[in-house]
Specification:
about 100 residues; mainly beta; Immunoglobulin-like; about 10% helix
Length: about 100
């Protein structure tokens, strides 16, 4: 399947499980953060005790379990003012409070 034609869907269940389709590549991951390259762009996922429970590289589906705290699409052309530490912390706090 051509990675440009992958459908992109995110399904989160009770902040404990997430299934992401349209994933082209897992750029980086650990138990607190995943960076995924998807057909819709880069996705940053943050949480606690995160782990891959299923990876289907042919269809581009990734299932992750753990406590999901934050999901963000990363735009390569972001304004540097938007990327200050204070703005990131403030944005993160608003997302899941």
């Amino acid at each position: 399947m051509d990675s440009n034609s992958l459908n992109h869907i995110i399904n989160v269940t009770e902040r404990k499980n997430i299934v992401i389709s349209g994933v082209k590549k897992i750029e980086n991951f650990d138990t607190e953060e995943f960076l995924l390259n998807s057909s819709a762009g880069l996705i940053l996922l943050k949480g606690k005790d995160l782990e891959i429970i299923k990876l289907d590289t042919i269809s581009g589906n990734v299932s992750i379990k753990g406590k999901i705290d934050f999901i963000e699409y990363i735009n390569d052309n972001t304004n540097k003012k938007e990327n200050t530490l204070f703005n990131k912390l403030f944005k993160w706090t608003l997302m899941f409070n």
